[in-house]
Amino acid sequence: MPQEQPTAKNLALSLQKLSPTELQIVADALAAFQKAPIDKYRFLTDFWGITVEEETQGRWRGHLPIRPQILNRQHIVHGGATYTLADSLMGYAVWRRYQGTMACVTVEIKMTYVAPGRGEELVAEVEVLRAGQTLAYTECRVLDNTGRLVAVATGTFYVWDPSQPLPD
Questions:
Q1: What is the pLDDT of residue 38?
Q2: Model-wide pTM > 0.70
């Protein structure tokens, strides 16, 4: 059965049925969509509220607020959200290592989960360990807001001149 085309009236009726928590998730999604025309490739990180800051020269820290939309059935952070935080931060750190002049994509990530993600936020700490002409190697530690280690990841990123097409 085809899905009914959304209208303002249908959306308003649906919104009236949502709980306050569900309304907050809709508000978060709407805020990310409104930002999308400016920063159209970052919807997921904007929706989840991921922020980035430089901790020290060449080391980066990212924050992921723990919100209902990233929890699994056990009410802990879904492993995919932890992975996305690490991947996003490692990629950002590589991009910044090349002063934003090179493009990069993930080639490989190895992630080990060591504790459930709980609390107010997850914090990713990233360092680029090696940056070559075409490959960069990174390390990421994901902690909860109490400082407990949640996951450890390493990542390899392919780097190229963005004026050239990405090779197949």
A1: 55
A2: yes
Average pLDDT over residues 100-124: 96
The residue among 46 and 131 whose pLDDT is bigger is 131
Answer CATH for 50-168 from 3.40.718.10, 1.25.40.390, 3.10.129.10, 3.40.30.10: 3.10.129.10
Residues 6+ apart with CB under 8 A from 72: 78, 79
